[in-house]
Amino acid sequence: MKLDHTGIAVRRIDEAIEFYTNVLGGKLAHRYTSEKPGVETHIAVIELENQVIELLEPTSKTSPIERFIRQKGKGVHHIAYAVDDLHATMEEMESRGLTFLKDTYRINPYGRRLIYINPVHTQGTIIELCDYVDVEK
């Protein structure tokens, strides 16, 4: 398991992209919008020298990112860890009593399968597990 990216909740994604590219020297790798129920978010992936930042701007009042910003404010939303096989890792963790937020499971447009661990097991930190299918990382 290794750190894959850090998700950051923002109000204005264009301003955040400008900061991460022009000030910190990152490169905008991908930008897309997911209007799927339970996601409803503009997403920008910024590649820095040794890390990836995922900027997240809510697109609706029902977006989980909107709810997060209302409750906790802007800033770090989640930490994502890449695993070799998402389903095998989930089975192993479930055998140890961990649970997942099953409704968060999805495959993004770039082939990343992901799911969130139930934060009751992580002292409240939102942790995403992910792997990549049919793409080179």
Automatic annotation (TrEMBL):
InterPro entries: Glyas_Bleomycin-R_OHBP_Dase, Glyoxalase_1_CS, MeMalonyl-CoA_epimerase, MMCE/EMCE_epimerase, VOC_core
Signal peptide bounds: none
CDD domains reported for this sequence: MMCE
Keywords for the protein's UniProt record, in alphabetical order: Metal-binding
Entry annotated with the keyword Metal-binding: yes
Record domain VOC: where: 2-132
Keyword set includes Metal-binding: yes
PANTHER family in alphabetical order: METHYLMALONYL-COA EPIMERASE, METHYLMALONYL-COA EPIMERASE, MITOCHONDRIAL
Protein family (similarity comment): Belongs to the methylmalonyl-CoA epimerase family.
Protein name: VOC family protein
Organism of origin: Fictibacillus iocasae
Lineage: Bacteria, Bacillati, Bacillota, Bacilli, Bacillales
